[in-house]
Amino acid sequence: MTLGEIRALLLRLRYWGRLEIGGKFRIDGGTINPNRGKIRIGRKAEIKRGAIIDANDGFVIIGDHFSLNPYSILYGSGGLTIGNWVRIAAHVVVIPANHGFSDPDTPIKKQPETRQGIVIEDDVWIGAGAVVLDGAHISRGCVIGAGSVVRGRTDPLGIYAGVPARKVGVRGEKRLIADARGTPRNPTLPLSRNKD
């Protein structure tokens, strides 16, 4: 039994009834805390050093073959559902809740939160430093560029980047790109067609 598997076993015992972890789970220095909520993590998940999964008073459900890289944070306040084969890079923050701030005479901390929840479907890769906001729904097969801020719903297999994240491509789509002279070329062909 590896150290990561021992940690997973100890977590199961500590949070009995509020934490479910599938087989072949590895935790390498991350923090998992269901608080007053619940967390369920599928098989073959890997949580790296400094990563945090905190259900608060909501829930976090994660599928199989999941990886959460260093210093990323997943909260569960408004509900977070993550599919299978999802990769989350370092320093990503996923927040399924938002502070109310409409009343300028009441401190923000005392105003009610919105809690729409977040869904991340199967086979998604979220790049380093991205932020996923309350109400986001990242569809199957999407790639989210590093540093992007995601809100709303994405299209399946979409490639998104920017603040706010916008669709910049589609996985599997072959696109012509321009060379330095502005001449369109197929990126799978060599740059030069000289025969010598």
TrEMBL record:
It is an enzyme of class 2 (transferase). Keywords: Acyltransferase, Transferase. One of its GO terms (molecular function) is acyltransferase activity. The keyword Acyltransferase applies. InterPro entries: Hexapep (IPR001451), Hexapeptide_acetyltransf (IPR051159), Trimer_LpxA-like_sf (IPR011004). SUPFAM superfamilies: Trimeric LpxA-like enzymes. The keyword Acyltransferase applies. Its EC number is 2.3.1.-. This is Acyltransferase. It comes from Sinorhizobium chiapasense.
